[in-house]
Structure prediction request, 297 residues.
Amino acid sequence: MKNQFKIFWATALLIIYSLAATAQENEAASLDLGTIPPYHMRVTYDKTSHLIFPSAIRYVDLGSEYLIASKAEDAENVLRVKASVKTFEEETNFSVITDDGRFYNFNVQYSANPPTLSYDLMAMQKNFDKVSASDVLFEELGKTPPSLAGLILETIYKNNKRIVKHIASESFGIQFSLKGIYIHNGKCYFHTQLENQTNVPFSIDFMSFKVIDKKTARRTASQQRPIVPLRIYKTLDEIPGKATDQNVFLLNQFTIADDKLLLIEIFEKNGGRHQTLKIKNSDLVKAKVINSMHLKF
Prediction:
């Protein structure tokens, strides 16, 4: 009987150990499936390396004090990296997250004469799609991956369809119009167009989104609720004479009371040809729904 008990407990312990080992192997395997292959680069002390990313840099983490890095002035998508000491033998690393939600990992070694000092990540991605599964979620975008938000902005811009035909402002030879309102996953996309019918370029100072009372004769700051776009498809600085351009803005989903208006205003730099779009709640609730599985809307 004692021998039977010994055999039983030995068998039970062997099964438990096997299950634990299998679980550990499965965990390791699942982590391996999510590995992000790093890029490899060499840096030096006397020269600066530059990395050009497809989108603005949002976050940088250096793996050790052997490296120093900073964004280039007036270039949000360019990172400068160099060694902080004249030599180091250990491999180190750094990571970068960009505004389009991409995560990049770099393994770095020291070299007195690096073979390359400038890297174009956009060109590299076209040949090696290393970051296709490394989308980072940002708090302001909620459940929408930045890459998907960027794809929707681009699709609206390239399709250039006019689904709203009654909201526009025209004066001084400038026509500002709303071409569409779209909605997806708790976010609104506003598609606008600016046409310059004159020979004088229209230099853009700034644009604003704000909610005001319909009956307010004299608008004051206390009666306005500004809304800040989360993303803009592209930066528009100027519309040349006899030219037209468009843009797409991403905002949090919202509606307004029937006694209020959404104003989209564009102001001319050193000029007075300002334009204003007035949008009612009845226009907002008719926003076209975007299916992310079928973006050719």
User: Anything to note?
Assistant: The first strand starts at residue 39 and ends at 43. The mean pLDDT is 85. The chain has two domains: 39-136, 147-289. The chain is about 20% helix and 40% strand.
